[in-house]
Amino acid sequence: MNQTEPPVAYMERTRAYYRALGYSPDYVWSHYDDVPFTALPGRLATLRLTLVTTSSPIVRDNRDARGVKHVWSAPVTPPPTALFTDDLAWDKESTHTRDVDSFVPLTAAQAFASEGRFAGLTSHFHGISTEYSHRKTIKEDAPELLQRLRDQNAEGAILCPI
Prior knowledge:
Elements: H1 10-20, E1 48-53, E2 59-60, E3 65-66, E4 72-75, H2 106-114, E5 120-121, E6 124-127, H3 134-151, E7 156-160
Parallel strand pairs: 1-5, 1-6, 1-7
Antiparallel strand pairs: 2-3, 4-6
């Protein structure tokens, strides 16, 4: 894209796509009048952080590999060599997700912590599935994720959506 090209209107493009498939009414994206984020409790260099991804561990069944559709956690050491992303929306023609550090940068985060950019990582990173249910996200997944972050004494989170 050069400087004169307008940005792609993804939301309107998605609406048009689903209309062409016969879906109505238009999808309503999640929005919140009261955003539950807060300011960091201190200087970044003093805080213990965690990473949160929308990818999931790979689960193999008799026929296929698939991801999980619930909140999950895994140790940061050793970092995972692969995560499941096939069910997520990303440009599969232009890129790949074989390099886990490209979308869950655990190695870079550990290096930044050792340089003193922040105090350290929690022992686990966390995943939350990309559900299309606003109710499930608000009532089940978000509270479960928050509890896991609190249990790990995370003082901040780096969100790594794919």
